[in-house]
Design goal:
587 residues; alpha/beta; DNA polymerase, domain 1; Beta Polymerase, domain 2; Beta Polymerase, domain 3; 4 domains; five-stranded mixed sheet; five-stranded parallel sheet; 18 strands; 13% strand; globular; DNA-binding
Length: 587
DNA sequence: GCCGTTTTCGGCCCGACTGTTTTCAGTCG
């Protein structure tokens, strides 16, 4: 998980979430959603509510989406006292471990309350004991199936891998797709959900298809052998869900042709986007559901997503943008937005060769880029000497490498081949913000990437100062993987993003969108902000072996989610235009 | 409790599937 940059936001979000559940337990209408929504919004904020309160008082809090007078007051109360009275009251009433119980699939607020009242279940371990003793099946409104489900789902929670990396799930997703597509009568099979939105992590897979023999495809689906179905979660005429041994849940929906677009739209989500769309539908006198857009009982759109958006008075919205973060307002306007496409990429500037820890020779990398990917240039950016584990290059080695690159470039020129290898390096930003390679050498390279590779857990002020010094260094052109997190493995550095943005803008420093699927750093929301600020961006593969160069596709996905067009990304430029983006060629 | 291209009051997304039910509430996506 991402480190909690704004711990207070997270603390309050947790309380709001629990309050929402408590209110739900008591059967209160609408308030639960308001609390949950507020919790979700707090988690997306780029600023601490403590800062907002300090700068703009309670009015600043109320100005936030989803926060009104009441919740603003509760935030203020928490900032002042470290507590929220309403919450403390509920804690006494229900001394229950809401967070973990709520994680158990099939358990919602009402069931949690029921188990608490009937059996005194306070937490997951109480629940397990009660279910194992057979207490649940003997309750009024209880039953054997319910009890068994609880036991199954408890096991599931213990072993669950919450979200999978997009890149690790991609081959499996396509393999299942291929098996379903050959079932007789199947057409238009699409993988929807967060997979289609190209999120960096995927929680489950959602397939939508048209089928002339729905039962046939459902049967194939629930009997998959490779991958093997571990559990059939539900099995209906039009919707079924299965689970694989590793816990991955996969859903299949079979729909009529006339509802295909509506179903794809609906199951692609995001949920928040869909809710917004339905509100627009209602405002225009329609009703939108997974079967189509309706005026009364008459379907007015549904076979394609395009016609649904059109009927709602919206431009078509690319799946990657469907997060309810302003795309609907955009779609009501006239401005075009041609998101970047993989074919726009002309080269790759973050490539490690066998001079450092990489596997491939410079000429093999160049030929792969030129012939397989159709690039016009690459930049070799090997690690530098501080990173001993990666056999980082020292000054002398960099100069020797420069000669080799010049030789290969000369050969291309002799053969009239339009391809150029640039020499950069990926220098290390040391603890004091200086680099591990002398300026006299740095200025002889074509460009310099610098990144954090050590002491990533410095406190906010310290690591921000370190990064700012690097950004202000006239020899550093690109900051690689700025936040330096690893998805699901390592938290991000606690950088002050606002200060990074300002400094990058002032100095013309380029920020990298690192396409390694374990990094995807910058993340989409930050990409979008950087773009808005006019900051230059580059999408790099961070290649260590030939195939890694194809990772660029994941970076494209993240960039699209960040509303990026071709012009925002410097490695869509032709070489002559590209090199002008480097500070050394501007100053 | 929030919010406003119908609204400062009166709405608040929608349907499938499950389990224990015999008409539905709860959960999920």
């Amino acid at each position: 998980m991402v480190a909690e940059q704004f711990e207070v936001n997270e603390e309050i979000a947790k309380i709001f979430h629990r309050l929402g559940v408590f209110l739900d337990m008591d059967g209160v209408d609408f308030k639960p959603t308001a609390y949950q929504r507020a919790a979700a919004i707090l988690r997306t904020l780029d600023q601490s509510v403590a800062d907002i309160y300090r700068l703009s008082d309670i009015k600043g809090l109320e100005a936030l989406e989803g926060i009104g007078k009441n919740l603003a007051y509760k935030i203020k109360e928490y900032l002042g006292t470290g507590k929220i009275q309403t919450y403390e009251k509920y804690l006494k009433l229900y001394p229950i471990d809401i967070d973990n119980l709520d994680e158990v699939p099939g358990l919602g607020p009402k069931t949690i309350k029921w188990l608490w009242e009937e059996l005194g279940v306070k937490n997951v371990s109480d629940l397990k004991i009660a279910a194992e003793k057979g207490l649940v099946k003997n309750l009024p409104r209880g039953g054997a199936k319910l009890e068994q489900n609880i036991l199954n789902n408890l096991n599931l929670v213990e072993t669950a891998n919450k979200r999978w990396l997009y890149a690790e799930i991609e081959p499996l997703a396509e393999k299942i797709k291929a098996q379903l597509e050959i079932v007789p009568g199947v057409s238009n099979l699409l993988i929807t959900g967060s997979y289609r939105r190209k999120k960096s992590t995927i929680g489950d897979l959602d397939y939508v298809t048209v089928a002339s023999k729905p039962t046939l495809v459902m049967d194939v689906f629930t009997n998959l052998q490779n991958p093997k179905v571990e559990e059939i979660i539900s099995h209906g005429k039009t919707r079924s869900s299965i689970r694989l041994a590793d816990g991955l849940e996969i859903d299949l929906r079979v729909v009529d042709k006339k509802s295909y677009g509506a179903a794809c739209q609906y199951f692609t989500g995001s949920k928040e986007h869909n809710i917004e769309l339905r509100k627009i539908a209602i405002a225009k006198g329609f009703k939108l559901n997974e079967y189509g857009l309706y005026k009364g009982v008459k379907q007015v759109a549904g076979s394609s997503e395009e016609e649904i958006y059109k009927m709602l008075g919206l431009r078509y919205i690319e799946p990657e943008l469907r997060e309810n973060t302003g795309e609907i307002e955009w779609a009501q306007g006239k401005k075009k937005l041609d998101l970047i496409n993989i074919k726009d990429i002309k080269g790759d500037l973050h490539i490690h060769s066998d001079w450092d820890g990489g596997k491939e020779s410079i000429s093999d990398l160049a030929e792969y880029a030129r012939l397989k990917l159709g690039y016009e240039y690459i930049g070799i950016s090997d690690h530098t000497k501080f990173l001993k584990i990666e056999r980082g290059l020292d000054e002398e080695q960099l100069m020797a490498q420069r000669l080799e690159i010049q030789k290969i470039n000369a050969k291309y020129k002799d053969k009239h081949i339009n391809f150029t290898i640039l020499q950069g390096c990926e220098a290390n930003i040391l603890n004091d913000g200086s680099l591990d390679i002398r300026d006299t050498i740095l200025k002889q390279l074509d460009y310099v990437i610098a990144g954090l590779h050590s002491q990533l857990d410095m406190d906010r002020e310290e690591i921000t100062a370190r990064m700012l010094k690097a950004i202000n260094n006239p020899y550093i052109d690109i900051i690689s993987h700025p936040f330096t997190g690893l998805i699901n493995r390592r938290p991000q550095a606690k950088l002050d993003w606002g200060m990074i943005l300002t400094a990058a803008k002032q100095t013309g420093t380029i920020l990298e969108i690192n396409a390694n699927p374990l990094r995807l750093d910058l993340e989409a929301p930050k990409i979008r902000e950087a773009k808005r600020e006019g900051i230059k961006l580059v999408i790099d593969s961070d290649t260590h072996s030939l195939e890694d160069m194809n990772q660029i596709e994941y970076g494209i996905g993240e960039a699209r989610r960040g509303w990026v067009v071709k012009e925002d990304i410097i490695n869509t430029f032709l070489l002559a235009h590209l090199v002008k983006q480097f500070k050394r060629n501007v100053l």
